[in-house]
């Protein structure tokens, strides 16, 4: 009997070991891979043809080298490049752009089939000659970094491979790249919305008692808790370490450093999440309650409410068809005409307490934390000349510098930033924006 029991026990152990030995299915990894593959297909099928044709470019050549990927390589399918590889897109008429990959391969690349033609990089000249392109776009740019991936040596190698006649047809693809990266399919919008949910959820948890214990937790502790959440959830970020710092009542102090969070602090956080090549850029604010308080000081709340009114002015100016610069000018005019408000300079407010200074930097977002498309921000002068179109992502960012009577004469900064998409109706949020000052007990 004991022998039978031993046999049964050994059998069960064998079955258990067999179960343990079978690897768990990579459900989340596979789901994300499938979603990214569909995003890439939609980008090349739906967005690339209009971007190339609007910019009058017959062929777009994107060159990569091992250890030096072009900024667009990930969206174009990635892949392994041994020496030099070329993604080549040719407008041969019809509804689709011909797609070729020369010198690019690998298992992951092959499992998301995007390209019609594959071959060695030595085929480049014959391939291009057979298609007789008049204008060949390459990634050299004056302002937009994502359109400036062609290094000096790669540029020389490309010209040599093409020969003088074809090399004379090379033109900058800066505007093409901006249009390709900043116009988005439904699958990209879905990924961006998911990235926004990750962003705001982690941020609002970070600025709560789940993470902050006043008198014990530093701003650096909060930042590294957020980084750990990214690691745990298999995400990346837009700007490195999140920026956590104090807005008042005292001086700002170190960002994401050793400032010990205390009752009475007003804290802000600026950061972004990268999910499936979709990047966010957003802010949140929190007030640490003093004993006996159940709300921020009235002056702080009034300042926040005033910033929300300015955000509404920005949203009212956004509509498809106008340039980003025209939209920014419309907002600036409205601010300048509003009693008690004045246009200001970033982190350099005027000393006049009768006026609250407003700075608007509502920039492109999505393909990067600071994106490649139309931008309502003076720090993106070229992108201000680009027209807003449905499918463009914008980060609605503003700063208000205003006195808080409870905290003396110094103006404090109230930052707001959240993300959304331009539509035929104007602008729509892709995740719930900040609507209140968060409270920490």
From TrEMBL:
<keyword id="KW-0378">Hydrolase</keyword>
<keyword id="KW-0031">Aminopeptidase</keyword>
<protein>
    <submittedName>
        <fullName>Xaa-Pro aminopeptidase</fullName>
    </submittedName>
</protein>
<dbReference type="Pfam" id="PF00557">
    <property type="entry name" value="Peptidase_M24"/>
</dbReference>
<feature type="signal peptide">
    <location>
        <begin position="1"/>
        <end position="26"/>
    </location>
</feature>
<feature type="domain" description="Peptidase M24">
    <location>
        <begin position="193"/>
        <end position="423"/>
    </location>
</feature>
<dbReference type="GO" id="GO:0004177">
    <property type="term" value="F:aminopeptidase activity"/>
</dbReference>
<dbReference type="InterPro" id="IPR050659">
    <property type="entry name" value="Peptidase_M24B"/>
</dbReference>
<dbReference type="InterPro" id="IPR000994">
    <property type="entry name" value="Pept_M24"/>
</dbReference>
<keyword id="KW-0732">Signal</keyword>
<dbReference type="InterPro" id="IPR036005">
    <property type="entry name" value="Creatinase/aminopeptidase-like"/>
</dbReference>
<keyword id="KW-0645">Protease</keyword>
């Amino acid at each position: 009997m004991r022998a039978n029991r031993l046999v049964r026990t050994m059998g069960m152990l064998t079955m258990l070991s067999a179960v343990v030995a079978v690897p768990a299915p990579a459900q989340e990894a596979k789901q994300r891979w499938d979603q990214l593959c569909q995003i890439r297909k939609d980008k090349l099928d739906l967005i690339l043809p209009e971007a190339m044709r609007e910019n009058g470019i017959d062929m777009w050549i994107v060159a990569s080298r091992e250890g030096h990927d072009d900024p667009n390589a990930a969206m174009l399918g990635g892949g392994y490049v041994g020496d030099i590889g070329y993604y080549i897109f040719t407008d041969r008429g019809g509804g689709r752009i011909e797609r070729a990959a020369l010198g690019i391969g690998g298992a992951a690349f092959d499992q998301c089939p995007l390209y019609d033609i594959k071959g060695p990089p030595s085929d480049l000249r014959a391939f291009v000659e057979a298609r007789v392109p008049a204008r060949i776009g390459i990634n050299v740019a004056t302002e937009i970094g994502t359109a400036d991936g062609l290094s000096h040596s790669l540029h020389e190698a490309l010209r040599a491979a093409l020969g003088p006649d074809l090399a004379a047809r090379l033109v900058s693809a800066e505007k093409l790249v901006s249009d390709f990266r900043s116009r988005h399919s439904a699958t990209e919008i879905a990924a961006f919305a998911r990235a926004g949910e990750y962003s705001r959820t982690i941020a609002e948890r970070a600025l709560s008692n789940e993470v902050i214990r006043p008198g014990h937790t530093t701003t650096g502790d909060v930042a590294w808790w957020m980084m750990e959440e990214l690691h745990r959830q298999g995400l990346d970020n837009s700007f490195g370490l999140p920026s956590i710092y104090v807005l008042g009542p005292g001086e700002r102090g170190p960002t994401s450093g050793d400032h010990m969070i205390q009752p009475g602090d007003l804290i802000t956080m600026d950061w972004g999440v990268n999910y499936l090549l979709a990047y966010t850029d957003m802010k949140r604010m929190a007030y640490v309650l003093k004993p006996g308080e159940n709300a921020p000081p009235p002056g702080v709340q009034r300042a926040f409410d005033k910033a929300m009114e300015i955000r509404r002015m920005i949203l009212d100016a956004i509509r498809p068809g106008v340039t980003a610069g025209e939209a920014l000018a419309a907002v600036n005019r409205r601010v300048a005409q509003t009693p008690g408000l004045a246009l200001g300079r970033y982190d350099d407010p005027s000393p006049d307490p009768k006026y609250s200074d407003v700075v608007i930097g509502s920039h492109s977002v999505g393909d990067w934390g600071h994106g490649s498309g139309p931008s309502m921000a003076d720090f993106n002068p070229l992108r201000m000349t680009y027209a807003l179109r449905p499918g463009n992502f914008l980060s609605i960012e503003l700063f208000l510098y205003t006195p808080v009577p409870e905290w003396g004469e110094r103006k404090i900064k109230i930052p707001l930033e959240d993300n959304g998409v331009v539509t035929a109706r104007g602008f729509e949020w892709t995740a719930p924006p900040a609507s209140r000052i968060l409270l920490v007990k």
